[in-house]
Amino acid sequence: MAQIFPSWTNKLPLILLVVVVGIGVSKVGFFSYFGSPEFTDVGYRPDQPVDYSHKLHAGDLGIDCRYCHVSVETSAVSNVPPTRTCMNCHTLVNTDSDKLAKVRESWQTGKPIEWVRVHKVGEYAYFNHSIHIDRGVGCISCHGNVAEMEKVTQAEPLSMGWCLDCHRNPGPNLRPVDEVTNMYWEKPDNQAEFAAKIIKEKNISPPVNCAGCHR
Amino acid sequence: MKKENKVQEKKYFRSLEELEGSKEYKEKAGREFPEGASEMNNDWSRRNFMGIMGASIALAGLAGCRRPKEKIVPYVIPPEDVIPGIAQQYATTMPFGTSSYGIVVESHEGRPTKIEGNKLHPSTLGSSNAMIQASMLGLYDPDRSQKVLQKGKEKTFDDFTAFWVEKFASYKDTKGEGLAVLSESFASPTLARLKKNFEKTFPKATWATYEPVSDENIYLGLKFAAGKDLQPVYDYSQADVILSLDSDFSLTESEDITANAGFAAGRTIEDEQSKMNRLYVVETAFSGTGGVADHRLVIKQHEIVRFVNALAKKLGVKGSQETPNVDLPASCNAWLDPLVQDLIASKGKSLVVAGRRMPHGVHALVYAINNELENLNKSVKYVELRDVEVSSVDSLKALADRMNSGLFSTVLMLNANPVYNAPSDFRFKSALKKVENSIHVGLYNDETAKACSWHIPTTHYLENWSDARSVDGTASVVQPLIAPLFNGKSAVEVLSLVVSGEFVDGHTIVKETWKDLVSGGFDSSWRKVLHDGVITSSSSKTITPDYKSEYIYEVVGYLDQGNKDGIEVVFASSPSVFDGRFANNGWMQELPGAVTRIAWDNVAQVSKKTADGLGLKSEDMIDININGAVIQMPLWVVPGTADDTVILELGYGRKGIGRIADKAGFDVYHARTSSAMSYASGATIVGTGRTFELANVQDHWSMENRPIVREANKEDYEHHPEFAKHAVHHPPLESMWTEFKYDKGNQWGMAIDLTTCTGCSACTIACQSENNIPVIGKQEVRNGREMHWIRIDRYFSGDVDDSASVEMVHQPIACQHCEMAPCEQVCPVAATVHSDDGLNSMVYNRCIGTRYCANNCPYKVRRFNFFNFTKETPEIVKMAMNPDVTVRARGVMEKCTYCVQRISKARIEAKKEDRLIVDGDVVVACQQACPANAIAFGDINDPESNVTKVKDRNRAYDLLAELNIRPRTSFLAKIRNINPNMPTTKIKPVDSKH
Q1: Which end of chain A has less neighbouring CB within 10 Å, N or C?
Q2: Do the Cβ atoms of B837 and A214 come within 8 Å?
Q3: CATH no. for residue B180?
Q4: Is the Cβ pair A114, B71 closer than 8 Å?
């Protein structure tokens, strides 16, 4: 009696296995790359109501971050400056620039400017700016080199894994506290040594348990 | 008298069903949630729902991938001192009748979210009670009145001002003829000043003051005793022996916070050698205070009056021999001798207090007794009444009578709601019809507002300027935390408009008063007052009244009352809604009663014997006929209630107030008359044959007969100091795996003292406020879905058929943060895990809602969001939420976190200051609120911390330690200080073989 199935069907289970595993692997690969914050969030650069240039102010003019973001050292929240902070200078400088029309309008009407949020961690994660500044984590570590951004762009994924990388090994991101806002500070050659010293001195032990950030 | 050494274990039960061990009970207790709890309660079945959800997901598809644009809206000109992300604290005062509570309110960017006590204020001492905590929610109540109304039509406040300016001129000419004010009672320098101005401007006008639940009898009794108005100020910590005569001083009476604190101070014992106070309670039904009593006598209300009279005679109070001898129940006679002995032995170190329900004659007598026992200026002092307006039923009666005679053309009601809560024989509603201009100023468009020609919405106390005096006379300021949300005008502003004919803002009026109150330069002193909230050295003069024996006869009129046949009805204020003022407050409505454990309703409480005699059982709908007036409400059997007595809580059964109040309970006021404000005799009860479903939580989260509560008499404790630890014996506990050593850094732990806990529930509401816990409604509570992170378990023990033998214990239970947590071991997605500082954390985002953890939790402390409770919360109520705590969504488990947000804050602040966290840096919400200081929290790795020391006490025990789960919360066993000479039917609580 002739065989019902031709001989190539002997390989069918193997083929099926390869196909199934292949689809599985590529699916996981697809989502872990395209679904990850590295792909979805890094590079996020929304249009802002006012064409404010960090490159000009923080870079070329060299204004310290904390001139506008005053609460960064004391509060969990680093504030976006009130209109008055803009007008401190712009009542004298570039008083009739078109770019500043919305700022002047806000100043006159008392209606705040509605900025679009760029950096955001999940609402169930309670990030605190002040403690990171106090420990000597530079602005650049999370926000990228803002001094060279015309338009603020998300530079890091701000995902939990990324946070934990640093919480588990804070050394590479530590610097002297008076250099935290300096976008051009260069790591010393003995960064590891420096970090070890500062970790010991300040007893730096970032929480790595859930309750450290989630409440 | 040698006591029989009965060695028998006390049996604790939460409900009669549990005691009987009925089949229904066993079935209920065996389930984590009642049958069908995971089904939605609307028309959609789960399958139906899944189908629709599937379709929506398919439709929503890729649109969900877009990142939502979020706006950041900064200030234009930032207010001074506001730093985004840092909460501010403001001192203010919550006025409450003739009391006031100094508080400190947390405000996030101008949005008040949490109330704590003000340490500088003599009536709060840094802690608070449930009502203070819940008043935060009242601020954001969307059902508050928002419009000025004239005969139901919307007007503006300017219209009212114009109306009044015209009237003002004519009333000024007639010196106020035909003008009357009905006010709530107050203790406020500004309101008192305005009242004086009112009387000056309108000498012929009438002023009445009325509160449905007030201390009028106490003031009246003291006035008889001393010939002048006096305010009693108690210091319970000075008393070794306390006798409470129907006084629930730890919960529903005035000044419950200081009473709790003082009582606890005299009861907090280090070890078996420490001295502790002894509490005798004579009452009709269980109160929170009755639960902590060492000896409790259960008699009817009118018998308490006779008891006090007999006590005075026994004590040899001068003049008391001439009052008539009245028969007492046998139980009282057996009590008197040993009680008198104990009181005399503690002369100068004792305290007798009587509750506000007792007639004024009793209060005069109690004054005489305290005088006889040399307690004056020790455990009780009397101070002059300053700036206080005391409620007077007679003044309301005079007002109503004259209104009925058509003598008034204008009546102004300031925060009063007489149509709802005035004695029914005054017929206030029909009296109002005879008044041309009836003006109601109040928070709600309530029963009275609807019957008035004008209604003005008033401000919540967190929205206005005012001031207050505490009972000892300390002046404090009420400052606004937020501008009026609904354009209300404060009582101060309205009264000032009435008096002067022009509108002045509250700030100016209050400052005007305070010019005379502060010393030194006004501006700097005023700033200090705003900072501190109080003037610390402004207490009133202490007065030692001369003792006269004549006033003892005041009691005589009450001695033969209550002899009628039938059932005695007791009108009690509710520990949840008080007199009805918290009726639309979801937190208070959902707070189970301290004794009944019923939420969302009031019930007719009777003893088992009475119910059996009537052939009725719990949840039967009954008609209570009180001399012609009929109340229909459900019956509830409460062990430990006097027989032939029914207790009715006031303040429920509101109509047309708001979405919370309208569904809850039954009105009792309509059957309360001026001749029987506290209790009425001769009532009858008939069953209607119908039943009514109640939301009772007493059988929820049962721990089923394990030795949960441990208690001992002081004497036994002295012989067996380690009794609590020996209540359970188990083989050596060994773990199946290598254990994590929690020995580095801060290790958080808690200890709760059951001896001082009175079950007042301040912790429950404080936790609800701090941790954004939703209100879920009556039906969901019935379904066993209540969300409170810290619940108070209430246990009875004794013979339910013999009310005198029944004892009550309260035990607060929250997550115990077990080191070897059973919940963590069964979570399939690691959504509940341990942190290295010993916290059992709940990771909401990982939770997929299997509820395995709740099933495996031996303490039953995990709460599941069956629905998206918070989503349905009105927007404005969301303003009360704490931004430091995640708002949980549907389908996730939640539970006590040991206030991890406060721990994180303390850790960050300590790090910024380059130091370690020290004891006292972390104060958790329940601990901060607890007026009895019964909760200790801190680092158990620090041998010097308070919590370590408390946990080291020999009566500390861990719940279910035999399971080797190592809870971080310990309990201190309850100790009762039994007088060996008292007659007792009590069963010894511990097995004293050890």
Answers
A1: N
A2: no
A3: 3.40.50.740
A4: yes
B835: nearest CB among A74, A130, A211: A211
- Whichever domain contains B229, its CATH number is 3.40.228.10
Which pLDDT value is given to residue B62?
46
B-chain residues near A35 (CB < 8 A): none
Same domain, B513 and B611: no
Distance from CA of A126 to the nearest CA of B (A): 8
Contacts of B123 (CB under 8 A, 6+ apart): B99, B100, B101, B102, B255, B257, B258, B470, B471, B472
Interface of B with A (CB under 8 A): 67, 69-78, 83-86, 833-837, 839, 841, 843-845, 884-886, 897, 900-901, 903-904, 907-908, 911-912, 914
Number of domains in chain B: 5
For B23, residues 6+ apart whose C-beta sits below 8 A from its C-beta are none
Q: What is the mean pLDDT of residues B915-926?
A: 93
Q: Which two tokens stand for residue A95?
A: 């008083």
Chain B residues with beta carbon closer than 8 angstroms to that of A154: none
Query: If you average pLDDT over residues A154-165, what whole number do you get?
Result: 92
ipTM of the complex: 0.89
Residue B829 sits in a domain whose CATH number is 3.30.70.20
Domain assignment of residue B640, given as a range: 564-696
Q: What is the largest CA-CA distance in chain B?
A: 91
Residue B230 forms part of a structural domain? yes
Closest chain B C-alpha to A21 CA, distance in angstroms: 24
Contacts of B865 in chain A (CB under 8 A): none
Residue pLDDT, tens place only, B239-294:
999 999 999 999 999 999 999 999 999 999 988 888 999 999 999 999 999 999 99
In terms of domains, do B241 and B200 share one? Answer: no
Cα dist. B650→B508, B663, B993 in Å?
38, 15, 47
Please indicate whether, in this complex, the C-beta atoms of B843 and A214 are within 8 angstroms of each other: yes
Q: Which tokens go with B746?
A: 């801060």
Q: Do A74 and B843 touch (CB under 8 A)?
A: no
Residues B109, B246, single domain; the answer is: no
